[in-house]
Amino acid sequence: VSDQKPLGCWSVKHGQIITCPVVCNFETHEYIAVHDDKVLRIWKNKDINLDKVFKATLSADVYRIHSLPNGGPVVLFKGGGVRTLDVLLEAPQQEIENIISDEVIKWSEAFMEGQQPVLIFATEKDGDFFVYVQKLKMNSLHKYKLEQQQLSKPLSFTAYIKNHIITLLCLYSNDSVYKVLVPLQQNTEEEEQTLSKSLLLNLSVSGSVLKGTSFVVVDKDHIAVLGSLAASGEESKECLTIWNTKFQTLQTLKELPLGTSGQLWCYEEKFFFTHGKVLTVILYKCETSSLAAAVGRLKDSQTPDVSSFVNWNTLGDEELVVSFQSQQSVALKSESKMTLRSKRNTAEVQPDALSVGQLLLNLKDASTSVFENELRQLMSKAQMPDFQATIGCVITALINRCKTNPKYYPRNFLLQIVQTRDLSYSLCPDLMAVALEKKDVHLLQICLQRFPDIPEEITYACLKVFLSISEAYLQRIDVNLESVICYIDIEFNNKEVKTEIVENGFNAELEQDTWDTKITKETHVTADGEFCPVGPQKAALLNAVLHSAYSETFLLPHLKNLPAQQAVLFLRYLYYLYVKCSEKLNTTLPGIRSPTINQIMDWMCLLLDAHFTVMVMLPEAKKLLSNLHKFVRAQVRFYSELNKIEGSLRELQRLNHQKDSQTYSIEVLELI
């Protein structure tokens, strides 16, 4: 999610349906899926086709698979039977008992109690709800009946385990959350006990009622609820809310105007939910609840989007921070910081204890020198775990001043921050946009090298700028040349100075000449000359693009908009790199951050996919495509010949191992 890149994609055949969420086996690093209720599939990252991976058809329908970090996967069947995956795979067709008869499973969860896997699931039958607790190692199953609630029923469940007691939280249709304590130790022989529940929270505030759809536990005093907030006479609005269960108050909320799927997940201090067509990820930090923080939310009911203790954007001032809405507008790019913290009386706050947001707000009208000096001091004082967020705030403040004052552009300050801090695109999304506007190619180069999550649209914009800038302009500016200085051919007085020798005896001219290709023998020839088609500065910038991570699906539509002349120039440079890599014995270019053969090949294929029709029609591209075709053909034949003698070479190696290394001999081996 942080790098915004798909790591793998697998699909079932047409007509097959994946019937429960796919999980990862933490012990074997395998994925486990069930399709068509009974067909189990297990595969690893390197597997491509699901038809060829492990398959097992089970004897009963699967409801859910739960994967425990130290307990292995646990399979819950729709009839209430439970098996560990290891036991199930020993005999996939083993009979699975039907425990719950006519009941329907509504929810399930798994925990580790010490070394003991524990599974809890809730069922419903004719308006009655039941809770089952299964201890796998002890093979014990306990059934409880949930106390009925007049005129309402459970809509969603969540649970956590502590001190041998499962705390089950139930979101009811009467807009309330109830708490149920489920003991793990069963001291009675009764077949079924009734669990009493207690009211934990009413989801209403200032005349508004939250119609919750799903919720998660944040900590012992806070829960997050996703739903629709409706006030009398007003249209309901979908929103994410944080509630303090200790003081029965709404801590904060965030409206979600694009709508959600109604599902909310929480994992490793991050919220996950869909907002429109966007997956939104929100980091949060939760500290001990206090009365001051709890009542602070109710002081100003007219400003529901402003909160003194939950800060959706790290800063409180909208002018100093990229708004939550603008971050969500980029597909799969929304990541903001939310902090739950106690806030003391503002009269007691000392000047050196000002929040980052308040400090930047105070600096809004400061002079440039004072502004930058204060920001440097702020960075030097930043402490973990808010260090990254603080740096992001500093960059955002600099960028916002650039927007309000077009003549202001702290190039050196921004370069210093990017070069010395571990940042990401999502932490400062407007930085590269401003650098593109200013055509600050050096800053763009550093961002491409250091940011792991750059959107494909921005990568394409950088490529277009790099290709369009003149060589004369690039020679006057500072660019990092460490990726090209060790291999690029430099022209002096129309003669080339080469600093390398061919390591593996492979020569592009000789190979191409073998297949009736007439080219000069002075050096490795590109499409229309003997030298690298771009200067060292432009080559270094293009190398930064080649190193940037991307998804072909998202990049290809943008790459099709690249002007034809720039596409030809870029392909010429890729062809030049391809030839240079082929000279090396290990097909690796020397230098720091030099492109790899795989990166060169991938980009070459991507560029040809995007512009093949245009390339065929352009006269200046004809020779380039012809040379590229012949060079690749020569390589294919060369490696084909090597492949033919592979067996003989292995046999020779085996014979050498059998000989006494101390004896001297000359042998003539005939390769057939």
TrEMBL record:
Domain Nucleolar protein 11 N-terminal residue range list: 1-285
Lineage: superkingdom: Eukaryota
PANTHER family (alphabetical): NUCLEOLAR PROTEIN 11
Keywords in alphabetical order: Activator, Nucleus, rRNA processing, Transcription, Transcription regulation
Source organism: Scopus umbretta (Hammerkop)
GO biological process: maturation of SSU-rRNA
Annotated protein name in UniProt: NOL11 protein
A GO cellular component entry from the record: nucleolus
Gene: Nol11
Localisation: Nucleus, Nucleolus
Residue stretches making up the Nucleolar protein 11 C-terminal domain: 358-671
GO MF term set: RNA binding
